[in-house]
Structure formats: structure tokens, C-alpha cells
């Protein structure tokens, strides 16, 4: 028998990992846009819808260039965790919007995959993970009206967040 030396797994390049994370975020953004359009078509509702438990984008376009990799990844991970909890609630409360249950699950799973990849990158870059934020207090009422209104708010804000996140990930990747 031939003896081959065991090859050690090469530590992956953080830029390559950033590229993978950025690709996931872009695909999630595209899927979210599509699902948001479907949601709006099936459940039209005019006006702006707010939900106080959603993460707040606390940085403006001018400050994007100053974002640090450690703080940026930690904030993205925390905010994605919160959005995941909102989609969990939406999926559970969506008895009135059952035809979209599969799509909610798909978005949830993609968020989970993105959070895990960001967390792995944070470990490789020795970035301390902030403890998970407290779970948001989402509405107790699951009437169809409440679910639709909350769904509109979640989709709208998540779409904006993902647009922001892809820009931030691109800028952070270039800082490595």
C-alpha cells in the first residue's frame, strides 16, 4: 500500500469567507425581495408599518466607510438573530397566511445559515461574540390583520437591513 502524508486542512482565507457570506447575503436579499413582493400581492396593505422590536439601523451612509470588522460582524450577527426570531414568530402566527409557510421556513433557514457563517468567521478572527440579545416581545394577538400588518413591517425592515448588510460586508471584506 502507498503511504500518503495526511494533508492538514488549510485555514481558510477570511476574504474568501467574507465572499461566501456576502454571496449568501445577496441571495437572501434577492429571495426576501421576491417573497416581500408575493406577500404584498397576496395581502395588500397601504402605508408604513412599524414594529418596535425590530433592530434599528444605527449608522448612516457617511459612516459606512469607518465601520470596523469586529463591531460590524458582531452587530450583523446580533441583528440577524433578532430578525430570525421575528420570522419564527411570523411562521408560528401565520395560520391566516398558510400558503406562505414554506417561504417563511426558507427565509428562516437562510438566516440561520448566514448567522452560523458569520459566527464561524468571528471565531476565526478572534472577535468576541456578544451574548444573544433578549428575545423580542412580539404581539400576542395573532389575528389575520395583526399578522399581515406585522409581516409587512418585518419584510420591509428586513429588506432594508439586508441591503445595508451587503454593503457593510463588502466594505469590511476590503479592510482585511
TrEMBL record:
- GO biological process: what's one of them? positive regulation of MAPK cascade
Q: Where found in the cell?
A: Secreted
What organism does the UniProt record list as the source?
Answer: Leptobrachium leishanense
Report what the protein is called.
Interleukin-11
Q: Which residues form the signal peptide?
A: none
Assigned keywords, A-Z: Cytokine, Growth factor, Secreted, Signal
Coarsely, its chief localization is secreted
The answer to whether keyword Signal applies is yes
As for family, the record states: Belongs to the IL-6 superfamily.
Give Gene Ontology CC terms. cytoplasm; extracellular space
Question: Which molecular-function annotation in GO is an example for this chain?
Answer: cytokine activity
**Record has Ion transport as a keyword:** no
